[in-house]
Amino acid sequence: MVPGFTYVRAKSVADGVRQLAAPGAKLHAGGTDLLGCLRDGVFKADRLISVSGLKELRGIAPVPAGGLRIGALTTHAQVVADKTINERYRALAQASAAVASPQLRNQGTIGGNLCQRPRCWYFRGDFHCLRKGGDHCYAEGGENQYHAVFGGHKCYIVHPSDTAPALIALGARVRIAGPGASRVVPLASFFVGPAKMITKETILEKREILTEILLPAAEPDLRSSYRKVRARGSFDFALAGIALALLIKDGKVARARVVFSGVAPVPWRSEPVEQAITGKALTPDVVAAAAEAGVKGAEPLEKNGYKVPLLEGIITESLLALA
Fold first, then answer.
1. Least enclosed by CB within 10 Å: which of 15, 33, 76, 95?
2. If pLDDT is split at 50, 70 and 90, which confidence band does 186 have?
3. CA torsion angle for 299, 301, 307, 309 (degrees, to 10)?
4. Per-residue confidence at 1, pLDDT binned at 50, 70, 90?
5. CA-to-CA distance for 158 and 255, rounded, in angstroms?
């Protein structure tokens, strides 16, 4: 059962920022993660500030300098249906299509997908773990088959978002509204790993709201994709996944962005894979070397070692598919 709370509809983004100053206030958008967290007791909320009715936070539109603006309240179903995203930013369309179930894609928002809390069963369960202010990571020596193999540092959550790796690969930025002027930051800088702060996943402060995602103009020779492997064929989080954005010129990779999902506390950019393929044609030998480089440095826990060969296989198949 969800505990009782006061529900307030913000009249504007500025009003939402102001209302978030109230003690115990939490932001409500699509609500697909927030309500689950309240029901499971992950955190408490005395007051929900809903921005779900703000039209300025919805929709997909071109920007004057090229590229796209995607409002944070735009649903995954709307992203998947958008012609421009399918034609120019294919990785994002594939990532949104891989989120949850059709029902949740109709309700869940792209902004919420970036800001959702970890799915670690210790964090979501009745355990006072490090991320909830405790002094122990129960996954380190417990049931850790779904946890991180990169970047753990005392907390071994994996980032649950599918759209985040795709957007980072595509060079997205996000706009954040707060008590002062809004700020725009690269999405890659939006996420916070446990080595920097163990109780937060993003740079958002209490009175800040993510309002929009900004995609750069898509270059004609850009090829992108997103693929994840999950335990069930639908409605499941990634065991491992990969977002690719490759600029191909004269049959060779001129620029590469490679970001893993399901294997680290943040979307994990793989510079070893990028370096292994840049300036080269994607031949089977080059791809094999890139896949091997991509899993070097992995530090699996007792029960998630399978993620290393799984990720190596995903790297191989995804690169060859874009060759």
1. 15
2. very high
3. 60
4. confident
5. 27
CA distance 51 to 212: 13
182 contacts: CB under 8 Å, gap ≥ 6: 175, 176, 211
Q: Which residue has the higher pLDDT, 101 or 129?
A: 129
Contact 3, 38 (CB under 8 A): yes
The contacts of residue 36 (CB under 8 Å, 6+ apart) are none
- Domains of the chain (ranges; CATH) run 1-50 (3.30.43.10), 57-115+158-215 (3.30.465.10), 222-322 (3.30.390.50)
Helix axes 307-322, 284-295, angle to 10 degrees: 150
Rounded to whole angstroms, the Cα distance separating 145 from 200 reads 23
CB atoms within 10 A of CB 89: 27
The rounded radius of gyration (Å) of the Cα atoms in the chain is 19
Name the token pair of 201.
């996943």
Compute how many other C-beta atoms are within 10 angstroms of the C-beta atom of residue 87. Answer: 10
| Residue 208 DSSP code | -
